[in-house]
Amino acid sequence: MLVLTGVIAVLAGISAFALWRVASDLRAAQVALEASSDDASVARIQEAQRHVDSALAEFDGGIVTLARWIPVTRQNLDAMGAVAQGLLPVLDTSRAALEGATAFERRGLVEEGRIGFKQLGRLEGPFRRQARGLDELLVTVDAQGSALLLPAVWNALEKLGDRAPGTGRGAR
Question: Global pTM?
Answer without folding.
Answer: 0.70
